Amino acid sequence: MDALFRCYDADTSGGIDYKEFASQLFGRDVGGATPSRGAATAEDLLERLRTKLASRGSRGIIGLSKQFRIMDDNHSMSLDKYEFNKAMQDYMLGFTEGEIGRLFTFFDYDRSGLVEYDEFLRTVRGPMNPNRKAVVAKAFTVLDKDKGGFVDINDIRGTYNASRHPDVLAGKKTEQQILQEFLETFETAHNMRNNDAPDHIVTKAEFEEYYNNISSSIDRDDYFEAMMNSAWNLDGSRVTKKGWASDDTGAAKVGAGAARP
Question: What is the pLDDT of residues 195-234, one digit of tens each?
């Protein structure tokens, strides 16, 4: 008990103000108090998380989402503190157990002991702006030829061509591996889908969710739009649709940084 007391007696005064204690424990301002010196707030940790995920490119937040879903054995779309902590540590983001606990407490809004991880990820990611939403909607419309609201995964397989992906050009991965990375993003959603859509398809919501995640790692709208056009030939300029531009070095660079799943 003495050791625990000393952890929260930051100024070694021999006394602990309960508001300061609560603020440090929950990682945010409680009753007007400020967390002790050196203790990052949940908002600080959230910003650090955004930066770390962005540094991993477009696969950053998608990978964390996959890690959360792996831990969600009962498909409840929520994690308890142990599951949340394990997922965050397994993804090796560099947070301490205490920092992860502070994030968990911050997002456990109703103090149920559970965090809805989709809401957590949406907060980390932020929404796409209207311009990007319009580009994504246009891409889905191009693929959804019969206007059924979903696209057969084989249609995507036939359209999405990774032959000019930088990892393919560098000999690091095959075209099939890149394609599989793209498609596997939807696999978990298929298994957890609670609607009447057939198997082996991508719904509009899933397609938008995927590109919402991609969007979080791209700062510029023109960069995002160029990436989408390169992947799906939105302007119809190519006779053969390719996932990566082959003739324009600049476009290929856009695809290299942005369209990589």
Answer: 566 667 888 888 888 888 778 777 788 888 887 887 777 8
What are the distances in angstroms from CA 89 to CA 84, 97, 100, 125? 9, 8, 9, 19
| Statement: residue 250 has pLDDT above 50 | no
The secondary structure of residue 73, as a DSSP letter, is T
- Whether the pLDDT of residue 28 is over 70: the answer is no
Please give the share of the chain, as a percent, with pLDDT higher than 90: 14
Give whole-number Cα distances, 228 to 14, 174, 218, 244, in Å: 60, 21, 12, 10
Contact indicator for 106, 99 with CB cutoff of 8 Å:
no
Is-contact 206 213, C-beta < 8 A? no
Summarised one tens digit per residue, pLDDT across range 158-197 is: 677 666 565 677 787 787 887 777 777 666 555 555 556 6
Separation in Å, CA 135 to CA 140, 165, 173, 232, 252: 9, 21, 28, 11, 19
Nearest residue to 122 via CA among 162, 64, 76, 172 = 64
Indicate the residue type of 78: S
Answer yes or no: are the C-beta atoms of 214 and 197 closer than 8 Å: no
Domains and CATH numbers, the chain: 1-36 (no CATH), 42-125 (1.10.238.10), 130-258 (1.10.238.10)
Burial of 56 (0-12, 13-18, 19+ CB in 10 A): middle
Instruction: Show the tokens assigned to 144.
Output: 């959804």
Q: What does pTM read for this prediction?
A: 0.57
